[in-house]
Amino acid sequence: MKKRSGDRTLLASVLMSAPGPVVVGAALFFGRSSTQLADFIRRSAELLAIIVSWIIYRKISRAEHISSAKVEKLERIANFSVALTMLISGTVILFVALASSAQSGANVIPGLVIAILGAVTNTWFWQRYRSLHRRSPNIIFAVQSRLYLGKSVVDLCVAAALLTLVIAPGTDAARYVDLIGSVIVSIYLLVNAVMIFRGKKNIVSKVPAAEIIHS
Q: Which one, of 111, 91, 149, lies nearest residue 35 by Cα?
């Protein structure tokens, strides 16, 4: 039952995250804000990370016999893929933010609505993964909980930046807030990439690699 619950939650994460890059990409046609572009790249990177985690979880949880060494190898592959994706995305976002010219605040309402809905949904998933991890300690649940906490915070930052563009379009304040929003998203991705590369996952450091086999 725990395996099914975890599998369903991860699958729900994939399905709920999949439309994000498409919808945000479409919103870019209405408001070409650097924060929206950064958000599009960020959501695409996160979708890849979630898909990798789901595949790894299914492979491990459905295996009849799997060693701790195999679990650790799969985890390293997943972590490297996620970290590399975040590193590339964070670098691209930072370049776009610093190289972009002054942005207009018009027509960013679709992106604002998406960011607000994203914050609400991601907060629910954060609590869901926390609950799963508490009931059955599992490294993938712990990492997903951390990922969704970050997603919620970044969505709130994006919403705040876009709201400023709506309230005060074309002003210096709007341009600076738009730039700051992009930089925050970039820093979020880069810091998490570095932490994964270095293996600093303190929230799961006490969970044995083999624990996932029995969750």
A: 111
171-211 pLDDT per residue, tens: 777 677 777 877 887 888 888 788 777 765 443 444 444 44
CA–CA separation, 154 vs 159, rounded Å? 8
Boundaries of every domain in the chain? 2-214
CA distances from 158 to 8, 85, 113 (A): 28, 20, 10
Task: Look up tokens 């997903």; give the residue.
Answer: 144
DSSP state of 67: -
Residue 85: what residue type?
T
Q: Can you tell me the distance from the alpha carbon of 53 to that of 161, in angstroms, rounded to the nearest whole number? A: 30
Tell me: pLDDT of 1 over 70.
no
Q: Evaluate the CA torsion angle 56, 16, 106, 165 in order and state its sign.
A: negative
Give the model's pLDDT for residue 209: 41
